[in-house]
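The pair is listed for reference:
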Amino acid sequence: MATNPYFKRESVDQNLIENLVIESIKIHGHDFLYLPRTLVNEDTLFGEDTSSKFENSVEIEMHVASVDGFEGEGDIISKLGFEIRDSMSVVVAKKRFEEEFAHLTTINYPREGDLLYFPLSKGLFEIKFVEHENPFYQSGKLYVYQLSCELFRYSHEDFDTDDDRIDDINIDQVDSVTGGVTIPSDPFATNDELETLGDDVFDFTETDPFSEGDFM
């Protein structure tokens, strides 16, 4: 038995759905910055490049699929210290992506390893997986990419995008304490004050029975 002849999967219907998807993302989405990764010295054995660069940034609207907030394990304390393991899923229209990256012939679709700058949290997220078949062939065509992203872990990459929001990220705060992730500096933090108070609490002189002084 054949499919219903009165409901054709024609280009007119596909174009209508695609335009509705794009308009919906423009209404409910956010303006992200997409940062393509430029490989400098790729390790083909491990599939990584710790000296890669980010030299371009393209603004494009995307819809955050996880409306209840960041996903992932969140903020945890591990044996390596305090870590932030936020993740999120975002949706971008295929047609809009192709339009914005028409000038870069080497990028035809979102790639794992590229970065997204989320302006609301002022954080960088790395694309871990690109799903291109969800929703599955509405009217015989695919309209969006769904990107699974995790908070970016800095590893000596070079940022030179000519965008202050990216290039001015305080890399000095990226260390093992935060799990090597990029987080914006907190103007209300009291780290220096707590460190000063901590110096007054600990006593490492010989009069302290818990000190490491030599009493022999």
Observations:
- The beta strands are 30-35, 53-54, 58-64, 71-78, 81-93, 115-118, 123-131, 144-151, 158-159.
- The chain has one domain: 11-200.
- The chain is about 20% helix and 25% strand.
- Helices lie at 11-28, 94-100, 164-167, 191-201.
